[in-house]
Structure formats: structure tokens, C-alpha cells
């Protein structure tokens, strides 16, 4: 029999949509996908070269469970250089992607029944990860009108005697919102006052088009001690398949995370670790090139979506996602189907127009569907033309 814990975990709708898209494409269907959060660029050559050199040098053995000293030093240097944060290599735990780092975090800090505050819309895996660690996810709903941001006062009001942590994701998946320095400062004050952990997911930090990235851990020693910073190389360096993420935390938490990982998976891939060192030390020319393309795509998509009757979107300031508001379509009939939910819209859009987008239900954003602009401009133009035709009822 399947365990109660496993039965209580929901499948990822983003991976489900991407799997359906890839299946249709493999079957020869003319489908366009906007589901997965994966840069369409190739991994930069100097990073691939470092991996090849590692293979040729025989760096194919086990490494320390928390990652090689060279990579942990490179991560610590990155935090100092880019975020003004002082960490020792012993404060760094390198994992099999940022997802793994998050699971390690919740396993390290949560006891059964501990509550974790999660602003919604949120990345689909956060609540499931909390539940895997026997915690209780508690969402705070934000609105498009307020920029999809939670306030310090809202967080304070949601804190109970069972609250153990708060998850912050800036820039955000799925909304693309970015918290300002002032907003983060106010949230940090609440976290310190109430003595709760902040799990700060900063995986999209280099993909900000307006404003700046500020790590909440950088304000003072008290908030730094309470913060577990999550990051990785997948989004910034187009290295999704390499599976290298990392966390920075105080001595006690980092030690606990490394211990958990040593039993769960041991070390991350040795060759990918060598490649990650090259990524973190190889300059930002490739990052800036990809960022320019993403911004161009974002601007085009926002303008086009807002020109189509029945849908709209706000301008995201970071990451590579757009949340399209479909609330005006609810209750309307399209192609013999009444749209009652984001799932209805996404399923019908895929079936009729052969375009894959992610329904908002999994993000706790039922009036929205998520588009990723981590795809080519040709795909974006084609997908939006199909959206316009779909909403005009012109498909037979």
C-alpha cells in the first residue's frame, strides 16, 4: 500500500503540462509549448569545456556530500561579491538542484505540525515540499492589483505559535514580481521580531529587468542567522539539466542539511560541480546576453496579450513568466466548453489551438494561466497568434 504521505502529495502541474506537450510533439503534432521554466539557450561553451576537462582529468569519483571545497568556495565568493554576504564554505551545501536544496532545508528545520507561510501565487512545489517534511503550508493570498506581493503586516497577522518559517521568492515564479529593498526590510523586521526562519529562494536573481535584487539576509546579522538562501546555476547559466543548486545557512542548519543529504543522495554530480565552478567564476557576458533576449520577449508578450480582447496581464519585473488574467473568460463558452477554471482554459487551449500553458490552480491563482517566455521569439509570435484566433472562435 502507498503511504499516507505519498498519497497527500500532488503532482506538479508544470511538469505535467510539459510532459503532455512533449508527448504531443513527439507524435508529430504542431504544438507550441510555454510550460517549463527552462531557458532555451545552450549552456555557455566555457562551462561545457570545464565539464569535458573534468571528465578527462578523471574527476568522476565521489566528492564530499555537501559539495567540493572548490565549488563551496566559489559560491561563498559569489555571495560576497554579488550580495554582500559573508559565508564560510562550511555554511554552503551544494545539492542536486535548488529543488533538492529546498527539500533539505525543510527537512532540517521543520517538526511535525510546524507551519510555513507561503505567499500566493507560489511555485507549485513549495507546499508539497513542506508537507514532505511533515510541516503545514499556510498561504497568504496576494492580488494582481497589489503587484502579487505580501506585506509585512500581512505576514505578522498570519504568524501563530506554530509558525516556523516564511518562504520568499524574489524574483517570483510564477508572477515575476520583485520585492524592493524597503519591502524586504519591513519583512525582515517581522521575522526577527517573531523569531521565524526565512527561506529565501533567489534562483532568478540575475533575471531582473527593472529595479535591483536584494537578498533579505544582507540587512543585519540577526536576519542573516534566520535566513536560508537558496540559489543555483540552472536559470542564470542555462544549466537546468546539470542539476546544481546550493543553500547558504548558519552553521547548525548547514550541518543538518549536509547530514540529511549524505544519507538521501550523497554528493551532487562531480562533473557538474566542476562546470558550476566555471559558471560562477566565468564572468557575466553570457548572463547579460540572455537577459537582453528575455526582456525583449517579455515586452513583446505583455504588449500583445494586453491588445487581445478577454485577457490581460501585468508587467513582470523579473524571472521569465507572465501571468495572464482569464477572469473575464470564466462562464463563457468556447468550442462547446464552458470555461469555469484555469484548468478548463488550459486543456481547451491545448486541445484546440495546440498551445501549452500552465493553469493557475497549482499556483493558487485560479484566475490566471502562466506563460513562460524562455522560448524563441518565433514560438512566442506563433503562440500569441493562436491565442488571438482561439479567443475569436475561428478554429473549426
Write out key terms for the chains shown:
7-stranded mixed sheet; alpha/beta; 396 residues; 4-stranded antiparallel sheet
Task: Describe this entry's structure for a reader.
With 396 residues, the protein is of the alpha/beta class. It has 14 helices and 15 strands. The strands form four sheets. Strands 2-8-7-6-5-3-4 form a seven-stranded mixed sheet, sandwiched between helices. It has a four-stranded antiparallel sheet with strand order 9-10-15-14. This is Aminotransferase. It is an enzyme of class 2 (transferase). GO terms for molecular function: pyridoxal phosphate binding; transaminase activity.
How are the SSEs placed, and which strands pair?
Layout (H helix, E strand, L loop, with lengths): L3 H4 L5 H14 L5 E2 L11 H12 L12 H15 L8 E4 L2 H12 L5 E6 L4 H8 L3 E6 L10 H7 L4 E7 L11 H14 L2 E5 L19 H6 E6 L12 E4 L2 H14 L5 H12 L3 H21 L6 E2 L7 E5 L7 E2 L2 E2 L3 H12 L1 E2 L1 E2 L8 E5 L4 H15 L5
Parallel strand pairs: 1-13, 3-4, 3-5, 5-6, 6-7
Antiparallel strand pairs: 2-8, 7-8, 9-10, 10-15, 11-12, 14-15
